[in-house]
Each structure stands twice: as C-alpha cells, then as structure tokens.
Amino acid sequence: MEERQLNEKDSLELIARMIQNTRQKMEKSHGVPFLVWGYTTIVISLLVWYFLSATGDYRVNYLWFLIPLIGAPLMFFFIQKHEKGVRTYIDRVIGYIWLVLGIAALVISVAAMFFWNFPILFVVILLMGSGTAITGLIVHFRPIIVAGFGGILLSLACLLVHGTNSILIFAGLFLLMMVVPGHILYAKGRR
Prior knowledge:
mainly alpha; 8 helices
C-alpha cells in the first residue's frame, strides 16, 4: 500500500476533523467524565465537611481517598458504555493530560497528610481547573474553557477561606468547573 504525502491544507483539515471528532465524542458521552468526577468530588467533599464539622476528628480526611476509589470504576463503566469507535490522537492527548493531573493530585494529596499547613484544596482546584481549561482549549468548546479558567481564578478563594468552610468552597468550585460544563455537554449530546 502506498503512503500519500499530505500537503499543508490536507494536514490542517485532518487535524480539524480529529478535533471535531473528539468534541462530538465528548458530546455523545454526555459529558460523563465531567459529571462523574464532579459529582463524586462534591459528594465526598460534603461528607468530609459534615463529619469534620460534627466530630472535629482529623481522620475524617481519609474519606478524600474515596474520590479515586469511586470515580475510577464509575469512569470505566460509563466510558465502556459510551465510547465506541476509533480513538484519535487528540482523544489520547486529553486522556494523558488528565492521567498526569490525576496522578499529580493523588501524590499531592498523600503528601498533604504529612504537611499540615499545605493548601491542598487550592492546589487540587488549580490542577483540575488547568485540566478543564486545557481540555476546552483543545476541543474548542467555550463553556469548558470558561469553567476551567474560572476554576483557576476562583481557586484563590480556597486560600482566603480557612477551616472547614474552605471545603464548601472546594465543592462549589467543582460544581462550577466540572458539573456545569458536564451538563452543558449532556444537553448538547441529547440534541
């Protein structure tokens, strides 16, 4: 089989098609990744906030590790259900970005167990906001871009609010950053 050389115009068209395919896949999957990780994080955040407020027992913070333990199997289940067809290079790039950011958030979360004054909520929002903004920029989807940069800017609120109330800020920012764009994708996918 003979390989055909692509000229500049064909290359740009191919890249544009790959971006469009990735965006359509995100719409068809109804924003599942954003909804799964957003709602899981919000529910666990509210559980941690409630039990920490009620008991004052710092060991409640171990509940944070339920986020990957619940989110990862849910993602596997829903992605198997929704994603069909060929994975493009753009799909893989987005997957790699989130893999790296997820591992970084997990490592930082473990490190925060040993450094009491570490601003973990701020750093996690900053990382996840960056991932959201990058994803939006790659697929050219404005609601995801705005949500990501909004999360980055508003992450400073986690530095300004102290105590258990910072957990409520954290949950609210995940609502803005993940759940809202996830529902926008869901609505677009249903059309």
